[in-house]
Amino acid sequence: MAMYCLLKLAPLFLAVAVCNGWLFGDFVGKQKEQDEISLWPLPQKFQSSAVAFKLSPASFQIVHAKQSSAGPSCGLLENAFRRYFEYIFGDLKKPEKSRKKVYDSDLVELQVWVTSADPKCDDFPSLQTDESYELSIDEPSAVLKAANVWGALRGLETFSQLVYEDYYGVNNINKTDISDFPRFAHRGILLDSSRHFLPLKVILANLEAMAMNKFNVFHWHIVDDQSFPYMSRTFPELSQKGAYHPFTHVYTPSDVKMVIEFARMRGIRVIPEFDTPGHTESWGNGQLDLLTPCYSGSSPSGTFGPVNPILNSSYDFMTQFFKEISTVFPDAYIHLGGDEVDFRCWESNPDIQKFMAQQGFGTDYSKLESFYIQRLLDIVAATKKGYMVWQEVFDNGVKLKDDTVVEVWMGNKMEEELQNVTRAGFTTILSAPWYLDYISYGQDWQHYYKVEPLSFPGTDAQKKLVIGGEACLWGEYVDATNLTPRLWPRASAVAERLWSDKSVTDVGNAYNRLVQHRCRMVKRGIPAEPLFVGHCRQEYKGL
Amino acid sequence: MAMYCLLKLAPLFLAVAVCNGWLFGDFVGKQKEQDEISLWPLPQKFQSSAVAFKLSPASFQIVHAKQSSAGPSCGLLENAFRRYFEYIFGDLKKPEKSRKKVYDSDLVELQVWVTSADPKCDDFPSLQTDESYELSIDEPSAVLKAANVWGALRGLETFSQLVYEDYYGVNNINKTDISDFPRFAHRGILLDSSRHFLPLKVILANLEAMAMNKFNVFHWHIVDDQSFPYMSRTFPELSQKGAYHPFTHVYTPSDVKMVIEFARMRGIRVIPEFDTPGHTESWGNGQLDLLTPCYSGSSPSGTFGPVNPILNSSYDFMTQFFKEISTVFPDAYIHLGGDEVDFRCWESNPDIQKFMAQQGFGTDYSKLESFYIQRLLDIVAATKKGYMVWQEVFDNGVKLKDDTVVEVWMGNKMEEELQNVTRAGFTTILSAPWYLDYISYGQDWQHYYKVEPLSFPGTDAQKKLVIGGEACLWGEYVDATNLTPRLWPRASAVAERLWSDKSVTDVGNAYNRLVQHRCRMVKRGIPAEPLFVGHCRQEYKGL
């Protein structure tokens, strides 16, 4: 039977772009069931037909292809097979083999074929990770082909999204061919565990949701002014005195390991942010003399400002601290912050003033900031890690390593900043339009969706330096009570913008798919909030 | 020992007003533990001392006072005793009597003394309900005195809020005298179960939260354009064809009974709203010819508008329907809606045009609207129920029964409307400033808190006609995934405005108490969202 572009079957569901170059044909039947299919984010190339296969939990299985370089010893894939089997069939357990019975129209297996010699089962994902995959659904076997496990994970998610229940509640999947890859390599979510402590299960649930949306970076803004929940083995007093509570509101080394491994199993990098020299009030509780004493007139006021940049002890501390961080977090990058340094305390302090004069900085405190950051970057570079920084670090003219990722977060002059950063040859990610802590009445996801990250003026070479973006949910007003429904499905808009083709911009089409995708998240146990009026068929299962 | 006004103990926690007329004294010690006390809403008269008593789950009990007209046969109070014992002691079960041991500083019981001859254990609360109570905490017994069970319920909540954990985690309560009563008689929450279906457990959880905030009216906007989840025994097709799903997304008669009884046990009235003639699209699915056929040119377009006001069958239907409603819902009031009638469909229909001409209405369709409403009101009046209406019904000059409650919801000219309604001698409630479905970044609870319902120009007699207000959470963007944290503690701001004295307006003071009150809700299992940065000591217990 001929293949038909899904565009013809259900115009609302897929944008024109995805059909370019594919065979077109007349629509024949089955529209109702096709409506249940709603891929998110939309794959790069997609071809589907009205031919449907049935999936039975008694006969269907996800298996390693014979040619695959991965096998049963690949724990990452074994776990993923189980996870997606459960997403598809819910609580239905696979019956004993003896009860297996296969009918003509059944799809009996999904073969996962990892093609490269090294499947990377035990690796960590990275910025260079190849996440592409090819998926072919046909009887009697579907085949998912990917260079390594990371692409396989993305393809498994897509496969699970293709399955829909027919009129009788039977799982179906249509004959389909997909060739898919991400538009941007860095697709992140920032969560803030300092303004409010986020229990481990909230973080893990959101990593689950990230995988459902093909996000691949968890930017963990782990500490800040308000609290220091990271339990350091080198400096245990940081959390003992800087966390909201030294036992109940901290991330132990074992917690951190669990987050990293849970993320790895889903192809998600964990990039911790230890923001200095500002945003460090909580550090001062457990580390004497780290922060600058502020002065009121000629005497210390008892309050403290940013990290004290004029003491060698500050740099000794950072050397030891980041040595630990570089071993605890396996990712090649650490986020070093560098944003929003308040100069008033430095200005008030006579020792700082003296140092400024000695260095010939005049009264330009951004030079002092850069002085600090420069030394910090060198310290971190010595641990063989790359670093990410907020845009101020670049703006202030600090000398950065070539592989530095500059994060553009300021909404005003965002395009100008992207131009400047990329003109200087640095890779950059965009978060300015995606501060999801800001809320407003109505469907604000549409604003996030309409952003085009490469709309700034610049050469092709400059555009290539934009490696992605991040949806940031700062923690002032969210904690375990409201974080997940506030983040999802609003962050899903960013997910599609960063994964799908540039031409995928039809908001009406996106709305229809996102309504279904949101219901799918709810069904899988993620309390994603509604886009608008309506209901999910299975909303009771997930809540 | 002398009694001290808590104002002296912890200035941030209680406003000046509550101390008027009470004995003042010097503050002695115990500030730290006092900080744990944070009553919400603030009682009318409050006096506390630093003398603390301990409460042990092994010895403390809530009992009927000997003089009380209520006893063990009063199921409402027995349930409340158990509920508040569990709020105070959590999972700790009361040990066997033989293990009971009483120490000198223990508070051994709270005696609940219902003073009127009829305790009203089996009644429903009403607009006339006396919710006042007096609470005296002293050794060896505390006494809660109220005319009937409704005041006792409010006093039990206050008692439970007075208990705090000391340094050792032991429950303490300070010597205290409280005399309390609500400023307004109608303190409501509107939930909308039509835009999204709200599972029963969501409604019940929010009734729990309402009781914690001394709200006393659940305004159940049960049906609307989008769906008709109310299962009618007289017209079962209304929900069979008008609900999102005929089995899973409906409120059965048993569900409705449960909501009403659960609310009654907490002193909360349930006022259902069946909004007509607009907002009725879902009614048309199950009731043929009820809605007006809209015309496109000279022929019906296939779409439908408001209830058809020119057919006798419409009034026959309403007569039967509201006869059922008046028996299902025990409250003396039914909300009949009457808002936002779109005239375009009526204008398009030639039969309606003809009727307009016959009646001499010209082209003033608000006259037709009033024609309909007038007949509807007479139908409902015949069931011996009172009615509430949205402000348009009054604005359009419909003749209303004297006891009608007009709900002012339009934000523009709100004060003018209050003036007009009360000048005409009608009781009114205010919801215009409290549409909690509108969200914005930051602490919007402060805006709700700062509203003064009686700030409009008018005589004392007019002001007395303002019997309260309602916080409305319309359902376009909320369902089971996000409703509860979006409503609480934002609605708590409205709760205090409607209960406490007019002079209680200090936002800083309110912030400090509300932070604690919000943590108390979380501890009791209500996922109320955070006001700002910080943490709850016991946030893990509730989540």
From TrEMBL, chains A, B:
Cystine connections: C74-C121, C294-C345, C519-C536
GO (cellular component) term, any one: membrane
Annotated keywords: Cytoplasmic vesicle, Disulfide bond, Glycoprotein, Glycosidase, Hydrolase, Lipid metabolism, Lysosome, Signal
Cellular localisation: Cytoplasmic vesicle, Secretory vesicle, Cortical granule; Lysosome
Enzyme class (EC, first level): hydrolase
EC numbers, comma separated: 3.2.1.52
Catalytic reactions on record: N-acetyl-beta-D-6-sulfogalactosaminyl-(1->4)-alpha-L-iduronyl-(1->3)-N-acetyl-D-6-sulfogalactosamine + H2O = alpha-L-iduronyl-(1->3)-N-acetyl-D-6-sulfogalactosamine + N-acetyl-D-6-sulfogalactosamine; beta-D-GalNAc-(1->4)-alpha-L-IdoA-(1->3)-beta-D-GalNAc-4-sulfate-(1->4)-alpha-L-IdoA-(1->3)-D-GalNAc-4-sulfate + H2O = alpha-L-IdoA-(1->3)-beta-D-GalNAc-4-sulfate-(1->4)-alpha-L-IdoA-(1->3)-D-GalNAc-4-sulfate + N-acetyl-D-galactosamine; a ganglioside GM2 + H2O = a ganglioside GM3 + N-acetyl-beta-D-galactosamine; Hydrolysis of terminal non-reducing N-acetyl-D-hexosamine residues in N-acetyl-beta-D-hexosaminides
GO MF, one annotated term: beta-N-acetylhexosaminidase activity
Active site residues of this protein: E340 (proton donor)
UniProt main location, coarse: cytoplasm
A GO BP entry: ganglioside catabolic process
Signal peptide: 1-21
Domain Beta-hexosaminidase eukaryotic type N-terminal, residue spans: 39-162
Glycoside hydrolase family 20 catalytic domain mapped to chain residues: 184-501
InterPro entries the UniProt entry points to: Beta_hexosaminidase_sua/sub, GH, Glyco_hydro_20_cat, Hex-like_dom2, HEX_eukaryotic_N
Protein family membership: Belongs to the glycosyl hydrolase 20 family.
Record note on quaternary structure: There are 3 forms of beta-hexosaminidase: hexosaminidase A is a heterodimer composed of one subunit alpha and one subunit beta (chain A and B); hexosaminidase B is a homodimer of two beta subunits (two chains A and B); hexosaminidase S is a homodimer of two alpha subunits. The composition of the dimer (isozyme A versus isozyme S) has a significant effect on the substrate specificity of the alpha subunit active site.
Free-text function comment from the UniProt entry: Hydrolyzes the non-reducing end N-acetyl-D-hexosamine and/or sulfated N-acetyl-D-hexosamine of glycoconjugates, such as the oligosaccharide moieties from proteins and neutral glycolipids, or from certain mucopolysaccharides. The isozyme B does not hydrolyze each of these substrates, however hydrolyzes efficiently neutral oligosaccharide. Only the isozyme A is responsible for the degradation of GM2 gangliosides in the presence of GM2A. During fertilization is responsible, at least in part, for the zona block to polyspermy.
Protein name according to UniProt: Beta-hexosaminidase
Source organism (scientific name): Cyprinus carpio
Native organism taxonomy: Eukaryota, Metazoa, Chordata, Craniata, Vertebrata
